[in-house]
């Protein structure tokens, strides 16, 4: 059974309780809030032969086949390798599944995640099935960035926004999910995960708090000229590039925000507050804006999997960062 998360309760009642199901749903929202689990739970319900209280029964033939991963009327489409595109050949295989008759005489259910990883040819190949799915087929599309989808794909689905849980609900859930962490650590993880509780759990598993402590310590030493950009760039080789660019992007935004508001409550996590405040007071605003533009452009390259020289890129970032504080 897919996990049911407390912040999805009312959404689940609404989706599972529909008297008639649409032929395509687009479940969209930030990563790390349980959209995949919601889609799997709906898939199980749609395939179940004797649902109970808006849930799959878990013991009919259909539920047992689904649990074993051998349900003939269920199809899951995802990238063949993590972080790669869904290819047009994969979608063609899916299309030939959609036109077949359901083997167990009920519905066929397709789950695609993440939909935005389809390249343009794959997306176009899917459109036909979205327009006229044959027989009783339901397509469940899961997207972390629905703005990247073709408008024609969005318009052919019932769009369902999946909510980010409130901070209180996330922290309550994290207390059970991460019982060995302190309340303070859980707040920090949730902040680093931009409010997504499942992302917070995976950050904890990656050791992100230790990684961040290493980076923050390095940035402080860089500004005090106790360590060079080159030494730091080489010392951070185990830390994901995207994480580094996210943090520097966040810090440059916080510097700007403080320059505009001088609001000490808006200085971000405690580990960098003093540094952010110091840089805000010592740096000309146009310098902050230009480093922020540069960071965003490089972050985009990291996201698009460009072939980057990691150490040189980090050195370039750190050299510019070290040069920020100059008197106005």
UniProtKB/TrEMBL annotation:
<keyword id="KW-0548">Nucleotidyltransferase</keyword>
<dbReference type="GO" id="GO:0009360">
    <property type="term" value="C:DNA polymerase III complex"/>
</dbReference>
<protein>
    <recommendedName>
        <fullName>DNA polymerase III subunit delta'</fullName>
        <ecNumber>2.7.7.7</ecNumber>
    </recommendedName>
</protein>
<keyword id="KW-0808">Transferase</keyword>
<dbReference type="InterPro" id="IPR050238">
    <property type="entry name" value="DNA_Rep/Repair_Clamp_Loader"/>
</dbReference>
<dbReference type="GO" id="GO:0003677">
    <property type="term" value="F:DNA binding"/>
</dbReference>
<dbReference type="Pfam" id="PF09115">
    <property type="entry name" value="DNApol3-delta_C"/>
</dbReference>
<keyword id="KW-0235">DNA replication</keyword>
<dbReference type="GO" id="GO:0008408">
    <property type="term" value="F:3'-5' exonuclease activity"/>
</dbReference>
<feature type="domain" description="DNA polymerase III delta subunit C-terminal">
    <location>
        <begin position="210"/>
        <end position="321"/>
    </location>
</feature>
<dbReference type="InterPro" id="IPR015199">
    <property type="entry name" value="DNA_pol_III_delta_C"/>
</dbReference>
<dbReference type="GO" id="GO:0006261">
    <property type="term" value="P:DNA-templated DNA replication"/>
</dbReference>
<keyword id="KW-0239">DNA-directed DNA polymerase</keyword>
<dbReference type="InterPro" id="IPR004622">
    <property type="entry name" value="DNA_pol_HolB"/>
</dbReference>
<dbReference type="Pfam" id="PF13177">
    <property type="entry name" value="DNA_pol3_delta2"/>
</dbReference>
<dbReference type="InterPro" id="IPR027417">
    <property type="entry name" value="P-loop_NTPase"/>
</dbReference>
<dbReference type="GO" id="GO:0003887">
    <property type="term" value="F:DNA-directed DNA polymerase activity"/>
</dbReference>
